[in-house]
Structures are given as structure tokens and as C-alpha cells.
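Regression test attached.
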Amino acid sequence: MRTDRLDELEHALIEMIQVEVTAGKPVEAHTDLLLTGLVSSISVVRIVTWLEEHLDIEIDPVDVVLENFQTVALMIDYARRR
Amino acid sequence: MPWLSEVRNGHDHFSERMTRPHNLSDLLLDRSQRDPSSLALVDADTRLTYGEVATMVGRLSTQIRHEGVRPGDRVAVFAPKSTNTFVAMHAALHAGAIAVPINAMTPADAVERLARDLNPRAVVLTADTAERWPLDVSSLTIGSPVDGHRLLDWTCLESGDVDGPANRLGSDPAYLISTSGSTGVPKSIVHTHSSGLRYAELAAECYDLGPDDRMASVAPFHFDQSTFELYSSMVAGAAVVLISEILLRFPASVSGLLEREAVTTWYSVPTILRQLLERGAIEERDLSALRWVLFGGEVFPPAQLRRLMEMLPSARFSNVYGPAEVNQCMFHHLETPPDDEANIPIGRPWADTDLRIVDREGSALSGACRGELHVRSSTTMAGYWNRPDVNRSVFDERQEVGGLTSRWYRTGDLVERDVDGVMYFLGRVDRQVKVRGVRIELEAVEMALGALDGITGSAAYLDPLADNTLVGVVESDATIAESDILISLANVLVNESIPSRVVVVPRLPRTTSGKVDVNRAAALVTASIDADTTTPGAPGPKASDQVSPT
């Protein structure tokens, strides 16, 4: 995937998380979403669905692991590998 | 005579035991003396032996006693599950104190009420929970500083003296478990060393635990299922594999851990097992070491249970029943996967337990019957903390021979016993409601809704704002029409049990133990009606102004 497209995706993802997941609490690319208690198991599903819709991919459940979803940057890394 | 004489795998686990344990802290001491080098505790980046855990527990216990903790004092653990909080739970017992695990997500005002009710001498905190702890309660914090409190940081586990355990009797309080408070004000259940120890022993026996077991610790410590891992593990010398609350948000990470650590037992609410089934990628893992899956706390929809059992053929599955007030009291081992429409029993009483089913007038029923379940057992709580009023009414004292009395805990659960003596859970006595004069169980409606395709959770309640009509709420990712749900229900429920309306939501509110929170689900529906009937941005109408849905 091209870099500018990834930047765009990162912004959109952060925006969605701030609106729908963290109730307005600011999030950055490297914020640990899990340690700060910002993201519940429900929000994980929401984020996965959002990525699937925006990238037009299907995410294998086996990839939905801590290592790929702890921060927005890790989610984008995962998206790049796809 | 050995206190558990079961011989398994050709050797007797308990043959070296000289005396039986008298209280919960004996379990760790005894095990660490006999098998100091066996694995006791596994975390993401830590592996500790029984000897190491016992030393850490002894150091913390000694330190907190130097800081003024006395037998009977409360030691609160207001922090997520970790090796340190596992050690703190045991150190509280070793010091003769009462361990009080508190849900780390509890909001500040609820924590304050709890803290004032319990008045703990010491509290385990993290930087996050310290912000919600009332400043003037307790004088000692462990783990994270609070202004004005003396602090023990976790380096105290790395060195220091170890004194012997405080002298505690079986009848002394050991730990408190908070009730969910789904109906009214939360209460703290007081378990004694004796009731906790007897549960630990009976569970180790019932589920055949041994030194080769690796027990997944799924439930947080404030939820009573966790006593299986906290204490039964030590009866058997098994290792505990901690699964953090963070990891539970990633079922595929959990299944990876189960494979890597060759976990052999699992105990959780069905909700977490359903997440593992739907999103855990278990078909890609080798989970052949998993030999026993226990579930309890809510009803497992049989279709999903069947799918899970088919995917984990090496594991035996058991439905575990028992209010936190009595620990466990019944179990049902499933020999084969259930049919989709099966009613899964809660089974029969386990050892050292006596059950009665009583009618509305309080008379015991015999044979096949339905009524409220009363329990008398060695694993029953002493009572509720600071609630003498409730303690008088929650136990039924009955006259026995010689002018003595027996004490029965009124569970508030409605059960049915069949001709073979096998029991079924019907619902809560206080969730039995009348719709158009017909008595129905709200749980039966929830079970029928939850069994429908594409539905991952359900709630049912009577809406006082709409003439007490029956309302269903279902959780689904898919778009499902209300009319389709109602048509499907007509095949399985009597007319009065079919909700007047069913609301589909993407997510249902749940308690920290994963159960659907019916009160909050109802509030969610009310709020969505408010949002529908007002212009965006305008304040919603008062509940009393609400138009009854038709």
C-alpha cells in the first residue's frame, strides 16, 4: 500500500477510535490502547470491522492478537503487511 | 488417613502429606515444603515455582505485619490480576488478614462506598486505581503511592525475612467476594478458611486435579470462580497460567497461550467461551492438552456449546452450579455434545452438601418438583459483611435433633428436579413475573432469544413505563428484523412469553464477569427511545413522559 494512503488511513482510524471507542479521549499512533483501559473487547471487534470495510479485506481471526492491535501504529503495520 | 485418598495415574498425590491443612494458608506452605521446585505460577514474562511463590508470600506477609496489619484486618486488592496480586491475595491470608479483591474497573464513588464499609488496613493499588481510592481510608498502600500513606513497593518481594503464618482457625474469615449487585446494593460475602478450603479440596477431587495440571486463570480475583485457580491448584500442586484482562480482549491471543503453555483446565462464564469459539481461531491451535472445560454463572446456549465441544474433542465439559455464597454445590458432566434444543442440567449435588427444594410456603418438596433451592454445605459462607439484617433473613434455621439447629442458605434460584433427581435451573425466584396473569421466567425468554441464529447475547425485562409489557433485547452484528425474531420465537415459546417488542443492539452491556447486565440493557433501550423521539441535541424527555411503544 502507498505511504500517503497509509497516512490517510491512520488519521481516519485515529478519528474513528476517538469518536467511537475512547469517547473523545485523545489517541496517538503509539498510545497503548490496552494498558490505559481505553479499548474493550467490544471495541476490538469494532476496529476489526472498520479496517475490513476501509481496506476491503477480510481479517483472519488468528491475526486479531495483542501484537497487532496494541496501538494504532501496530494496526497500520499489520494493514501494510496485508 | 490421608485427607484425600484418591489414587490416580498409579500414584497417590497426597501420600506424603502428614497432616491435613486446617486453613487456606496451609495449602501453599504445605505444597512449597513438599514440592518447592514444581511450577506454580505462569505469567506473560514470569515463571515461578511453589518455593518462590511461598517465599514472596512470606515476605509480603511479614512486611505488612511489621506495618501494623493484624489478624482480622482487611487487605484490599484493588488492581488487575498479575503475579504480584496473586501473591498479595495469599499474603493477606498468611498474615491472618481478610483478603478483599476489588474489581479494578470499579468507578470512584462505588469504590469509596466499599472502602468505607470494609475499612481495610492496607490496599494494593496501581497508578491507575490509586486515582480512585479514597485518600483517608487505610494507612498502607502496596504497589503504588498515595499521599499520606506509607508505601510498600513491589521490591519488598525480592528480599527480607519470612515469619510463620498467623494462627487462624477454620471458622475465621479468610476472604470477601462482592456480589454483582444486579439486584440492589452489592453485598460482600464472607468466606471462612474452612468454607474456602473445603471448596478447594472438593473441587480438586471433583475435577481430578493433579501436579501435571496447568490451570488457566480466566476469572478475575473479585469473581468467585477464581478460587478454583487460587486455592484448588495448591491442593493438587498444579500450575496456574494467568490470563490477564487485557489478553481476554483478544481470544486468538488467549488460544495461542493455551497452546503454548499446554493448558489442561479452564473455568469461565459461557460468554468468554463463546468469544473463544467465534473469534479464538481455535481450529488453528493444538489444544489437545485441554482435558476439562468448566463453565458456570449463566446458561450456555446448547448450539454453541455443541460446536465448541466438537472443536475440542479431547476435553470433558461440565456445567458448574453454585451461588458465590456457597461456592459450588452441583455439577453436571456432559458425556456428549448436546442437541440444539437441549436443556442442560445443573446436575446433582457434590460431596458434603445437602439440598432442599421448597414451595412458596417454605415446605420441602420431594420427588420430581419445582421450587426454590435451599443449600446446606461445608462450603457455605459465614454471612454478608456488616449486614446482620440480611443475614437473619437469608438463612433458614431449622430445628434438628437434640435442640440443635441447621442453617440453610436460601439461594433465590428456582430449580426443577426430575424423577431421576437431576436438577435444572429455571431462573431467579425474583425474575419470575406475571404477564397477562400467566407466570413466566424471564430467563427462559432470554434463553430462547439467545438460541436464535446470529444472536450473541440477550436480555428480557418487564417495562414499567409501558404497562409492564415484556421487552426483549438481543445483541447481534447482523441486521435482523424484529418480525423475524418474533416469528422464530412463536415456535418455541408460549404466547405470554413472547416479547411485545424486541430491540436489536450491536452490543449489550455486561458485568465484569461477562454476564449480560439486564438493568443497563433496559436503560439502553429507554435511552434509544429517548433519542428516537427527540430532535438531535435536544434533551430527552423525562421517563414519565415517554410514549408507550406499541
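Expected vs. actual: identical. The first helix of chain B runs from residue 24 to 34.
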